[in-house]
Design brief:
The chain has 129 residues and is mainly alpha-helical. Helix content is 69%, strand content 0%. It contains seven helices and no strands. The protein has helices at residues 2-23, 42-46, 49-61, 71-76, 79-92, 96-101, 105-127. Helix 1 crosses helix 5 and helix 5 (79-92) packs across helix 7. The longest helix has 23 residues, at 105-127.
Length: 129
């Protein structure tokens, strides 16, 4: 029963997010574009060799693998719903998406859906003002 409830919840979240995103998929959330985030020049950022090395390592040498492909998750949840949630996660979160994808299979989908629902609620609250 619990697994069926999770499948239904994932499907409902999928449909709600798809409807919300269909209006304008390019619309940014929160304060993106409103607040300047970097005050340092690109040259000074590139001069931090340890950070550049870490970024290159994570992007090209040893990229993180997602636990969404674990057998437990693939057998339990609808694959198109998971793909949609993972795609939306990548659009709404750059850094936290990697953290969510590394969670153990028992937590990953629950945290993924919970995070997306909270982001959707935050967007609705931001648009009400």
């Amino acid at each position: 029963r619990i697994q069926q409830g999770k499948k239904t919840c994932a499907a409902n979240t999928h449909n709600t997010l798809r409807a919300a995103m269909s209006n304008d998929a390019t619309k940014k959330q929160g304060a993106y574009g409103k607040i300047k985030t970097h005050k340092e020049s690109k040259i000074s950022q590139i001069c931090r060799l340890d950070e550049v090395f870490s970024a290159v390592t994570l992007l090209y040498i040893k990229p993180l693998s997602s636990n969404l492909n674990s057998p437990q998750i693939q057998e339990t949840f609808n694959k198109p719903d998971l793909e949609f949630c993972d795609e939306i996660l990548g659009k709404v979160s750059r850094s936290f998406a990697a953290v969510i994808r590394q969670l153990p299979a028992a937590l990953l989908v629950d945290v993924l859906i919970f995070y997306l629902v909270l982001r959707a609620l935050d967007t609705v609250e931001d648009d009400m003002s």
